Amino acid sequence: MQERFKVNVRRSCRLALLRPSVWYAESEARDQSALRLRIREIAMDRPRFGYLRVLVMLKREGWEIGKKRVYRLYRLEGLQLRMKVKRRKRISLQRGRPMPATGPNQHWSMDFVHDQMLDGRAFRVLTVIDQWSRESVSLEANFRLTGRCVGKALDEAALQRGWPKAITVDNGTEFTSKALDEWAWRRGVKLDYTRPGKPTDNGLIESFNGRLRDEFLNVNEFITMQDAREKLKAWQHDYNHHRPHGSLGHLTPSEFVRKRSDQQLESRPTPI
Length: 272
Hints:
This protein has helices at about 1-5, 10-15, 20-25, 35-45, 50-60, 65-75, 145-160, 180-185, 205-215, 225-240, 255-265; strands spanning about 105-115, 120-130, 135-140, 165-170, 190-195. It is α/β, with parallel strands linked by helices. The protein folds into 3 domains: about 1-25; about 30-80; about 105-265, Ribonuclease H-like superfamily/Ribonuclease H (Nucleotidyltransferase, domain 5), CATH 3.30.420.10. Strands 3-2-1-4-5 form a 5-stranded mixed sheet, sandwiched between helices. It is globular and about 65 Å long. The protein starts with a helix and ends in a 5-residue tail after the last helix.
């Protein structure tokens, strides 16, 4: 409220029906970052340990802590243990929620969008974005896209930027296939699967797909697959370099990356 409407603290508290003392009050809660980090490390090392067994490990290390706090922090880290283990094993599965991206090319999101040609033939578009910069990493269109095709498209995108640490995907057959699982394992990429029936777990790519459909697919006709790919490439360039993004302070993704890079260079201490 203060940043948007440029009002002082007292007036902001009055409008929000808060006492100024509430605003200025400092939290007396103890810092839990070290404990949360250790809980996450134990869960990563021992994927089948629930919070009670994690508690035993912590007490063996000398932590004075109760099970309720461990359970709360365990849940906050997104480390709920699935009691029913799926029969298929995934060697590239991300355990718990990945750490938020703090720079480009750390965490991508991936999904599919469907449309049809002028003659009625259906085709699909693989959409990949960078979660930090909102940049469109890849738009791959084809009539048929398997898990192996997805891996090939990601390899082409990685030629210019390298591979990310993690990719958030849904539970579609292409993303749960053995081909993509092996691709991710060989390149050291973790696949972060959303909860079934929870598209909001991958909200950034859902938002991007909505813009792609509203601003591109709904206003263009596609005669051939080559025609669709050329138009997709032109729209992708416009999206990355010319279209302002609200969540980036009305900067384009490329401008946002360049601005943050310049800020990091300025913040570095100059050698004496």
